[in-house]
Every structure is written in C-alpha cells, then in structure tokens.
Amino acid sequence: MLKAQQVALEVTSPSSPGVIKPVGADNYIHVIMPMFVQW
C-alpha cells in the first residue's frame, strides 16, 4: 500500500510496461505489465 498523497503513472505506449511511483520520492517503484487476452 502506498501512503503518498499523489502518485505518478508513467507509460510510453499502451503495449509497453509502465511504472507507478510516489510524486517527489524515489523510495518506491511498482512496475506494471500489460496483459493481452484473446477470446
């Protein structure tokens, strides 16, 4: 759980990995990976 008041979501494209991190702090970074589901 992040206790920051604001977070930044940084992505470069819809199919690329991104990161979520607190604004103004570098002590936490969470990598998010896209998933593709074919029906």
SSE layout:
Blueprint: E1 7-10, E2 18-22, E3 30-32
Antiparallel strand pairs: 1-2, 2-3
Please outline what is shown here:
Helices cover 0% and strands 31% of the residues.
Explain this structure:
The model has no long low-confidence stretch (mean pLDDT 90). The protein is mostly beta strands. It has one domain. It starts with 6 loop residues before the first strand and ends in a 7-residue tail after the last strand. A three-stranded antiparallel sheet has the order 1-2-3, with no helix packed on it. A hairpin with a 7-residue loop joins strand 2 and strand 3.
Strand content: 25-35%
In terms of structural class, how would the helical and strand content be classed? mainly beta
Strand order of the largest sheet: 1-2-3
Low-confidence residue ranges? none
CA-CA gap between termini:
32 Å
What is the number of strand segments?
3
Q: What is the count of DSSP helices, taking H or I runs of 4+ residues?
A: 0
Mean pLDDT rating: 90
Helix content: under 10%
Overall shape:
elongated
Largest sheet: 3 strands, antiparallel
Total count of domains: 1
EC number: 2.7.7.7
Protein name: DNA polymerase III subunit beta
Organism: Dehalococcoides mccartyi
GO molecular function, one term: DNA-directed DNA polymerase activity
